[in-house]
Amino acid sequence: MSVLIVDDEERDRLWLKGLLTSRLEGPLTIYEAHDGQEAVDAAMKYKPQLVFLDIKMPKLSGIKAAEQILSKLPETGVVILSNFSDEVYVRQLWKVVPPNGVFGYVLKNASDDQVAEAAKAVLSGDCWIHPGIARVIQRTQNRATNLTAAEYEALVCIALGLTDHEIATRLYLTEKAVQSRLKALYAKLGIPGRGESPDVDFNQRCRAVYLSNRRGLINQSELEEWESRLLASRTTAGS
Amino acid sequence: MSVLIVDDEERDRLWLKGLLTSRLEGPLTIYEAHDGQEAVDAAMKYKPQLVFLDIKMPKLSGIKAAEQILSKLPETGVVILSNFSDEVYVRQLWKVVPPNGVFGYVLKNASDDQVAEAAKAVLSGDCWIHPGIARVIQRTQNRATNLTAAEYEALVCIALGLTDHEIATRLYLTEKAVQSRLKALYAKLGIPGRGESPDVDFNQRCRAVYLSNRRGLINQSELEEWESRLLASRTTAGS
DNA sequence: GATAAATTCAGGGTTTTCCCTGAATTTGGG
DNA sequence: CCCAAATTCAGGGAAAACCCTGAATTTATC
């Protein structure tokens, strides 16, 4: 039995290592990595049955590392360790894991029992998803509330503070098209239009950002990545 | 020597307990509490020299707990443990700690050495602030960039998605006054006006929210508290 | 391939946000 | 008490965001 533990924080690595050592029966080999890049390299080298991946890591996020590992070694059991129940990450993970692949999704405030359970489940071919995220997953698959890629794109743009016109330019669309996307987005988020609400009048744009943050559809660190990408493309390949 | 450790996560409590036991010389008594309310009670009862407080806790936040403890026992050394370098919290803490009071501010990704250092510093009457927050503190005291209470209030409102008109109603102001506040806010955040920017056109409202999040002036959980308060006041004391 | 759904785009109208100037008022120190 | 700074408020104007309807296209799905 071999396990790869990937986390940039020593404290968490120690905790996991201790936990797995005491809870998993049989001989156990543990490898460690400190970031996504190391994780991919180590996985290639040692081909562990199980990989524990922190989401927030320098160089390569846990999700991206999982993607690369699974593309080479689809048999690997992946367990994601996350601090939040962010819908963004669940969405991304969903795309990355092969249809018949196995994965676990554990929040960092999980009990030791839960982590051990998740590890065992994934090893024996089952998925294990933290209770409380089940809800998020459901939403991820629900047509009515699940955002399309287009809507998500628009969401990120307004969250960064772009105007309709800027968004249109950047995405090669008309302003009207952008407004269409936004309208659909507001509807899915359940934001009332002007005068549609009994007691509170909202600025839909800002309200959409707020609610999306609340639901974990977007979060600050994701946005910051998007920003650097969007602004870079402008400076580099300027018109 | 007595220390009170307050954190709702067992893992972190254990970590801190082990750390302090091994690093602090002399006989050591450690008390524990799981939330802000318990913390205040325990502090009253045991009068520890040092209190370690997590910021995010059920019932009473670390800051508020610190406020109550310091109002009764101003001699207590308070060390805040936070996951982020959020400016909101530093601002709040600044107000709560008496002018001659002692406090520490440690990020949770701090090394064991740093935590031990912070504990010793506070015990011997010095403040200890995590490197990287120094910058935030400076900004907190800088006239030009530091937000006034009025601007902060406006910021929270737009971040929640309220319109100018709604804000005016809620704060008993004119729409024009609200716009004044917002204008000042945008200026302090350094957001370019229409056409003032060479390459990107921003929706100032959303941009302000984004940048404030980035700088830690506001954050999601704070906003959610504000929301429940603002919406409650409407339903309860209507008109 | 046909149906349904999502997406783009248009025209034209209303409201909101943002801009500029400027004055009365409040606030905090010296 | 007075100055300087912050704050509130006003009027009027330009731009952006939102609303409605409706049609042509693309995209999935059966």
- CATH class category label of the largest domain in chain A: Alpha Beta
CATH superfamily of the largest domain in chain A: Response regulator
> Main beta sheet of chain A, described?
6 strands, parallel
Shape of chain A: elongated
Query: What percent of residues of chain A are in strands?
Result: 5-15%
Report Rg of chain A: 20 Å
pLDDT averaged residue by residue of chain A:
83
* Structure summary, number of beta strands of chain A: 6
Quaternary organization: homodimer
Number of domains of chain A: 2
What is the helical fraction of chain A, as a range of percent?
40-55%
The SSE string of chain A, one letter per element, is EHEHEHEHEHEHHHHHH
What would you call the structural class of chain A?
alpha/beta
- What CATH calls the topology of the largest domain in chain A is Rossmann fold
Distance between the termini of chain A: 54 Å
